[in-house]
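Quick question: who can interpret this fold?

. . .
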Amino acid sequence: MQSSSKIRRKVAPLANDGDSDKLDQLLVSSAICNAEDLGPFVRKAFASGKPETLLHHLRHFARSKESEIEEVCKAHYQDFIMAVDDLRSMLSDADSLKSALSHSSGLLQSVAGPLLNSLDAFVEARNVSRNISLALDSVQTCIRLIELCSRANSHLSGNNFYMALKCLEAIERDFLERTPSSTLRRMLEKQIPAIRSYIERRINKEFGDWLVEIRIVSRNLGQLAIGQASSARQREEELRIKQRQAEEQSRLSLRDCVYALEEEDEDDDGGLGVGDDGKDNHNNGGSGVLGFDLTPLYRAYHIHQTLGLEDRFKQYYFENRKLQLTSDFQVSSMTPFLESHQTFFAQIAGFFIVEDRILRTGGGLITKFEVENLWETAVSKMCSVLEDQFSRMQTANHLLLIKDYVSLLGVTLRRYGYPIDSLLDVLSKHRDKYHELLLSDCRKLIGDALAADKFEQMLMKKEYEYSMNVLSFQIQTSDIIPAFPYIAPFSSTVPDCCRIVRSFIEDSVSFMSYGGQLDFYDVIKKYLDRLLSEVLDGALLKLINTSVHGVSQAMQVAANMAVLERACDFFFRHAAQLSGIPLRMAERGRRQFPLKNARDAAEEMLSGMLKTKIDGFMMLTENVNWMADEPPPNGNEYVNEVIIYLETLVSTAQQILPAAVLKRVLQDVLSYISEKIVGVLFGDSVKRFNVNAITGIDVDIRLLESFADNQAHLSSDEDANQLKSALAEARQLINLLLSSNPENFLNPVIRVKNYNTLDYRKVVTISEKLRDPSDRLFGTFGARGAKQNTRKKSLDALIKRLKEVS
């Protein structure tokens, strides 16, 4: 068609209308002969508005073919006539066949009639049988369905929801589509969702009741778990105490004392219902001790799994538990935290013990990641609460109580795999504040103890008093138990202060223990040094400067200081033992006596008071005859009074003062007496003196030296020589004045050896006051006078040379 149209478009302008009609007629005829589609010709005719032309072409084609048809008919005419004859001959045969068939049909109908009646009866009977079978099958189906419904109702009545749901599943799977009764089917389609909804409501109510109950159970569970941790810690402390006792007995070489450390085989988790392998010791995750029953939870979880609502229940459970944990974080402002902290931390501990159990036995109800998120939230909140509460506390004991409970909480939850480093960091952060509060408390207690001191020796009537006040602080001077009643060399303030310091050590160790830091002795030692050197030493200095009146009180304070020096050794050993380090390491790091300032002040005050007494006796030097004709044979009056007083003092002091302290005090007093004797000779009150007066002073010094020698029984001969050395200045001055050749003072070797304590200026002044007997109106004559003149010349030469040097 496209080619013809193209040709038409090319020839249309050149051809006339007659040629165009002939061409269209040829195309139509060609298409019909070739059995082509005439659709394009029809569309073209109607498109051009000339359908008559197409009809004309078709009629023309038909007329052109009529002649061909006639020719064909003429060609086959003879065959057609023969076919008609054949048909006529076959018509008679057909009539005979029709008669035979009619006869056979009659015979067949007469024979098949009864048979068809029997067949109809058989078909009807078979249909009835089939209907009966179907009815029986329907009845059996209904019976089984009713039985399942009955069992489902029975399970629902017995709250056995899982089995009820299984019955519903069986009904839906096996009977719902096969139920012959439409009424029964509609009933099932209506009731099955209602029953499932009812089961879901019931199980959610049980789960809600469990959520309420588990909060109370968690608190009790946390308290029990922390209590078990506390008991375990106490047992460890008892074992350590026994071990320290054994070590102490071994240190004292008491081989007959044998200690056996008994091991207690106890299951720390027995009360919680958790075995060592991390599995439940009770069915369904329950615990018979506290009613720690997870059955309602797992039942709800199982039912929701059966209902196909597992993910929704997991989310519902997590959100509710998170809300419970958030509510557990609330700290009441109406109740002091000291009273509520145990409940607060026990609730959180119980919560995470329960979650740990559910994580291990819940079959994926909660994931480890979710538990870790809850724990991080809890740790953050607990740290925040502790920071806030610790910042408000002003009592060390309150802070210690909370710290101990928090450390027990950490120990408890660490056993379940929860990290507690953040909690321990908070405790460590407030270590300095705690010790500052503890030092403040001890400062007040020590001040009260010292204020109550009566400066009297302590009387102990019973052995337990001796053990409590002496042996417990290892301040005894002998391992032999004294007879009772026993008068101690110290006053009651010593054991009182020792108890305060020991309590400080134990509280400090208690705070530092179980805080994540294993070696904390250096910290304990630092604060113990501060307590002794700042608090106790300062309080004793204040007591010495303000409250001590009289020699007896000063002597008692000095005796107390000597006992406290031994107690300080015990304090550092005790701190080392409680800190768990060997004693040799503690003794290796020992420093000087921390109460040195107070000890020196006490001894200085005692010496000062004794010097004041000595000053009174030295006033008697005014009665000395400095120009005596004969030296006094038994010494001067003042020295006899001094010796009597010193002997009385020693007899009293040796009962309470250690020999070393008494030696230091006596040495200071004798040195002072020596200075006073030199001072009298050097002072303006004595204008001149003669050899007889100096000889009398020599006797005085000999008496004092004899007193010093007599003190050897208190300590040793070496200490007695040190006491005598306190009189060195007076002794060397008298030796120089009585020397036959005083000019030897100018010899450096002799001066260093015999006169090393003398000041040459004092020697000049005192030597100028020495008057020879020949200077008197009636001097002596003879050899003695010549000897005196020789000494006088030597002394004058000494004075002259010393003046030249000066």
Remarks:
- The chain has a mean pLDDT of 79.
- The radius of gyration is 64 Å.
- DSSP finds 28 helices and four strands in the chain.
